Amino acid sequence: MEVAIFMAKCLTVLGIESSCDETAAAVVKICQEEGTAITLSNVVHSQTADHAIYGGVVPELAARAHISHIDGLIKQAMIDAGLKYNQLDGVAVTAGPGLVGGLLVGMMSAKAIAMAYDLPFIGVNHLEGHALTPGLTQGLQPPYLLLLVSGGHTQIVSVDGVGQYERLGTTIDDALGEAFDKTAKLLSLGYPGGPAVEKAAQSGDEKRFKFPRPLRGKDGCNFSFSGLKTAVRQQAQKLENIDDQDVSDICAGFQCAVVETIKDRLGNGMEMFAQKHSDVGQKILVVAGGVAANKHLRAGLEKVCEDKNYQLIVPPIELCTDNAAMIAYVGALRLARGDVDELDMSARARWPLDRHGAPMPFAGVKA
Ligand code: KG4
Ligand code: ZN
Questions:
Q1: Distance from the CA of 127 to the center of ligand 2, in angstroms?
Q2: Could you tell me where in the chain the CATH 3.30.420.40 domains are found?
Q3: pTM over 0.85
């Protein structure tokens, strides 16, 4: 819904996030004239421990945990910001994409606050939160290229402006974080798998096992990780009495294949972005999502940025992973444009950032 441009000098927005396994609330204030964005509060409860024994996020458990924690977190975010609800200018919430049970919990809470205090309601696309985070953390404005690598998404996006996104590439099957998690599960390394695989890889020989580099050398910048995952499984099954060194060598080989694949795909994405934005001087690559914590990946990204003459920007890791500050920030930007939603807005399991991007049949919400 588009309404008249909101003329307030500064806008303070409460943001709520519950699309996966983090319950989060935050308050962000933007002052458009000064060009500033301040995070007044930002609280997150991670459900990792609840899901660890299952080796992945269990949607029903996630939804129940969101119900248990959301009220306390919203209250805490308001106390930390030193504000009362009637001092807010709007309430923003992740409306998708994500697990519907969790999304509904956040949306019901946001709608209740919006209704009780007669505040504008903004249903935010979670991916837009990740895409615009560098505006909040580094004051960076589009256009820039985004690599989003999380447990749920693996995409290369041309961020052309607020509300203007072109998906240049996406996974056609598994997300990258998911591939790390499945590799860790297969090797009994626990959950979440990414940090465990990275740790094991430190003492491994990346050359011992040669894993495939999926789609390397192909046109475009889509990703595929399911073949790599299968190759890891087959290799593990071939080894009898697999010991710690074998596990480390597999992890190092897997990580090396991942990084080489990302460098190849991103190289193509960077060329596509550079052609599209030939007028932009210093091209910028922003990385978001939990997998951005991986040091081997970061080193690979630095190398490809150097080769392609891009500047690499990585927001602080706590704002690369799921949080509500990014949702509050997008909510404030949209409110400033008068772009708000009705209270009957539904949660959306699938909500592509790029409206024109074709769906990927085997990737579901991950694309
Ligand atoms: O963005 P995020 O916190 O949550 C969502 O997926 O929405 O990302 C979590 C993902 C998990 O798959 C986790 O295994 C992965 O990020 N991850 C890592 C590392 N730290 C977290 N993957 C590789 N290396 C890491 N150090
Ligand atoms: Zn996310």
A1: 7
A2: 10-138+319-351, 144-314
A3: yes
